[in-house]
Specification:
348 residues; Aspartate Aminotransferase, domain 1; Aspartate Aminotransferase, domain 2; 2 domains; seven-stranded mixed sheet; four-stranded antiparallel sheet; 15 strands; 18% strand
Length: 348
C-alpha cells in the first residue's frame, strides 16, 4: 500500500532494501518444485557432518571432497577457525567485514589493521601489507572487499600466500561468486598446494538464500580435517541439504545473475557519478560504496529522506574504518536501481 504525506513523498511499507548484498533474482520455481519437503522429511535428521551433499559442491568447485567442508553459512566457519587454530595475532583490512574482527576478539586474539586509504580509493597496497604482516600469524582478506567493492588480483594474493608460508591466509570469496569468470579468479585450486590458505564463501548472497544458511570452506585435507573435528554435529538442517544439490545445478540462474551484475553495477555507478554531491567508488562486486561530498547533506538526512521514499541503505558509520559520510548500496533489479538513482537526483 502506498500512502502520501504532506511532502508528496511515496511511502511504501515494503521497502526496497539496498543494504543486503543479495542477488537481485530469486531462485526459479522450477528448482524449488524439485525440492520435495513433507512431514516425513522434516522429521528426519540431516547427515551428521553433511558429508552426503559434499559431493555436489565438490563437482561445482571441481575439487576433491577432502578439501571441502560445508557449513551453516560462512559465519559458522569464521567462528570456528580461531577456536581450532589458536592464532596469536591477526591482520585485518580496514574497512572490511565486521565478523572477522568480532570472532577473533571473542578468542582474545590480538589484532593489527592495514588501513585502506580513502585517498587511494581504498585500494590494496602490497608494500604496506608486507610491512604489517611481519608480526602476525594469520591474515583475513575479503576479496572482493566488503564494503569497498575493491578486488586484489589473484596473482598478487597467490604470490603472497606462497611467499609467507608460515602465515595463515583466510580469504573470503563470497562476492567473487558473482564474477562471470569466477573459475579463473578463485584461489580454490591453490589449496592443494598451500597448507596456509583457507577460502571461505557463502552461498546466501549469490543465490539469495540467507534463510537456510549455506556456506563452505575450501582448504588442505589437513585443515579441513581439523575443522570437521571441532564443528558442531548436524550443523546443516535438512532443508539446506535438500536445496544445495538443486541450486548448484541451476546454471541458467548463475549465468543470468553474473551477466546482469557485470553490466548493471557499472551502469548504476556511472549514474551516481552524475550526482554532484556524491562520489561512488568504482565497484568490482555487486555493491557500491558511496561518499557524501557535500557538507550540507548528512548521512542521517539522506537515510531519512530515502526511508520516506521506501528505500533502505547501509550506513557507513556502522562499519569500522568508515565515517558518517559513507553509505553502501547493493545492485538490485534495474527498475529498483532506477528508483534509487532518481531519488538521489531529486534530493535537495
Amino acid at each position: 500500500m502506498v500512502q502520501r504525506n504532506k511532502f508528496n513523498i511515496s511511502i511504501n511499507k515494503n521497502k526496497i532494501d539496498f543494504s543486503i548484498n543479495y542477488s537481485p533474482f530469486k531462485i526459479s520455481n522450477k528448482v524449488l518444485d524439485n525440492i520435495k519437503i513433507n512431514s516425513e522429511t522434516l522429521s528426519a535428521y540431516p547427515s551428521y557432518h553433511s558429508n552426503a551433499i559434499v559431493e555436489s559442491l565438490a563437482d561445482f568447485l571441481n575439487l576433491k571432497k577432502e578439501n571441502i567442508i560445508i557449513s551453516n553459512g560462512s559465519t559458522e566457519i569464521f567462528f570456528l577457525i580461531p577456536q581450532v587454530f589458536k592464532f596469536n595475532r591477526a591482520l585485518l583490512l580496514s574497512p572490511s567485514f565486521w565478523e572477522y574482527e568480532f570472532t577473533i576478539s571473542l578468542n582474545s586474539i590480538k589484532k593489527d589493521f592495514l588501513v585502506l586509504p580513502h585517498s587511494n580509493d581504498f585500494k590494496f597496497n602490497r608494500k604496506e601489507f608486507e610491512k604489517k604482516i611481519k608480526k602476525v600469524n594469520c591474515i583475513y582478506i575479503c576479496n572482493p572487499n566488503n564494503p569497498t567493492s575493491t578486488y586484489i588480483e589473484k596473482d598478487i594474493l597467490a604470490s603472497l600466500i606462497k611467499k609467507y608460508k608460515n602465515k595463515m591466509f583466510i580469504v573470503d570469496e563470497t562476492y567473487l561468486l558473482f564474477f562471470e569468470n569466477y573459475d579463473k579468479k578463485t584461489l580454490n585450486r591453490l589449496v592443494t598446494k598451500c597448507e596456509n590458505l583457507m577460502i571461505v564463501s557463502s552461498l546466501s548472497k549469490i543465490f539469495g538464500i540467507g534463510g537456510i544458511r549455506l556456506g563452505f570452506c575450501v582448504s588442505s585435507k589437513k585443515n579441513i580435517t581439523l575443522l570437521k573435528a571441532k564443528r558442531n554435529p548436524y550443523s546443516l538442517n535438512i532443508i539446506a541439504e535438500l536445496t544445495l544439490p538443486k541450486i548448484l545445478k541451476d546454471m541458467d540462474y548463475l549465468n543470468k545473475t553474473r551477466s546482469f551484475i557485470s553490466k548493471e553495477k557499472f551502469r548504476v555507478y556511472n549514474e551516481i557519478k552524475k550526482v554532484k554531491w556524491l562520489k561512488p567508488f568504482e565497484p568490482t562486486a555487486n555493491f557500491i560504496l558511496v561518499k557524501i561530498k557535500d557538507n550540507k547533506r548528512t548521512l542521517s538526512k539522506l537515510e531519512y529522506y530515502l526511508e520516506r521514499k521506501g528505500i533502505k541503505i547501509r550506513r557507513g558509520d556502522v562499519i569500522n574504518g568508515l565515517s558518517n559520510k559513507y553509505f553502501r548500496i547493493c545492485i538490485k533489479a534495474k527498475k529498483e536501481n532506477n528508483l534509487l538513482v532518481k531519488a538521489l537526483n531529486e534530493m535537495e
